[in-house]
Hints:
Elements: H1 14-49, H2 54-68, H3 72-86, H4 89-96, E1 100-103, E2 106-109, H5 113-139, H6 143-151, H7 156-171, H8 173-186, H9 198-209, H10 212-236, H11 238-241
Antiparallel strand pairs: 1-2
Amino acid sequence: MTPPAWLGYGWLEPHFIGWMLQGAALTAWLALLVCGLATLLGVLLAAGHEQRWRSVRLAVRAFLSLHRNTPLMVQLLLWYFGVAGLLPEAAMLWLNALHVVTLAGWMLAWPSFEFVAALVALSLYSAAFVAEEIRAGIRSIAPGQRAAALALGMTPRQVFRHIVLPQALRVVRRPLLGQYLGVIKNTSLTMAIGVAELSYSSRQVESETLLTFQAFAVATLLYLLLVLGTHLAGGRVRPTLGEGR
């Protein structure tokens, strides 16, 4: 029995669908890593913006301005071609060679230079936007709460970690989810530097089969599933963040 055409099997052979599923898996893995790194760096940047030292605040503002006001594609090309041009030839040969690390019986391959460049560029770019969301959440916390915590003997670092940051994350949960959805879509730009994510694999399938509509229709469906999955995951963290009951 032939599967329905809307699943893609009616148009594309199964091994082409396999290519696209591999690309979708790489897209999901890259987006997950970027979201984690961008959130961590975004918290640090937001905290730095609140520091009393002017030099720290200026450095944070410069970082945010640079990454928020330049196109992501330019940043990807800078990290891939620009950094590659600055590194010694021996370093590039090592980065492009296959390396395998054994960890607890698992064979882990060192990622390609394309993947590393994409991870760094996307993480720094996304962190600039995540930091602004978290900063907005921090500003929404009443100053009296900080004063009360300090009066109880807590250090400024403890106040930020235990009082301010948890409430700020609760306030900006939905905007952060929007940023994470943007990360999934931004991964499609990494095809420009050779990362074999979903858009790249879709383009490969289209070149092999000349079935343009079919290939990108399946890609659209897979992107939609990734976005819906992220929405569901975002809903599940609601109790953890303690949003109103």
